[in-house]
Amino acid sequence: MQSQNSGLIGAIEAGGTKFICALAQSDGTIVARARIDTRTPAECFPDLAAFFRESSEAHGPIAAFGVASFGPIDIDPTSPAYGTFTTTPKPGWQGARFHDVLDPFGVPFVVDTDVNGAALGEYLHGAGQGARTLAYTTIGTGVGTGVLRDGRSMMGFSHYEMGHIHPNHDRVADPFPGWCPYHGDCLEGLVAGPGIIKRWGKSLDQLAGDADKIELIGGYIADLAADLVLMHMPDRLIFGGGVMKAPGLIEAVRRRTLARLNGYIRHPRLDAGLETYIVGPALGDDAGITGAIALGHQALADR
Ligand code: ZN
Known about the structure:
The protein is of the alpha/beta class. The protein is about 35% helix and about 20% strand. It contains eight helices and ten strands. Helix 3 (about 115-125) crosses helix 8 and helix 6 packs across helix 7 (about 250-260). The protein has a five-stranded mixed sheet with strand order 3-2-1-4-5. A five-stranded mixed sheet has the order 8-7-6-9-10, with helices on both faces. The protein has two domains: about 10-115, Nucleotidyltransferase, domain 5 (2-Layer Sandwich), CATH 3.30.420; about 125-280, 2-Layer Sandwich (Nucleotidyltransferase, domain 5). Zinc ion binds near residues 182 and 186.
């Protein structure tokens, strides 16, 4: 019994509205799971610690933790501020640190972004399988892209912030100035859910019959897709998140990406209609926690 449970992984998917916590066996089977509402760290962290303490008493010792979190957060393991929230506007979270919850367990852990975690989940068990270089983009209340190489997330001095590139803003068809507090009409300011509601009063899902609006938003997202191809040459692009569920949007993204690239990149990876190259996610809501478990395994492997 002891040997069977010696490799339990504690996993945390930290989101803006909820934390999903899980305890998993080495084969990925989840033996305990909880949802904790996101409040201030002073309110959430004791609940997190209690869940892992109690589930560990029931199922066995925890060997490592993986955390896939909202940000901005320091994910550089060599940084003194590793695991610390940096400039997040979320009240109480700036300066909060996962070490405060996890250090008392005395086991290794890895902290990465939510989008990198979801990318890893899709790489291992979903739509990213077999893609040595994988770009996973989520378009929901915000926009973010994670790029993996051989199942490891890539970064520079910090995690990537590709949601804030500037697409070609069609100011005639779309005079909306964008809502990003830093850049106005960056990609996030133009295509994330709140910006769509601000300018049209409805979600893109509810506007699916309006082909011009789908094409406009698809064009902005395609600017990112084309930039991802040019900068990273990924084997596949996955686009997920609430906004991407609008009918017809992924088809518009494929069409507009082809137009942007204009035949410049020729490679068997890019099929004629980009139907196997630009795809939706396969794991749905479980991508994040699946990725967090995988990050825990990385913590064990890197120990
Ligand atoms: Zn921005």
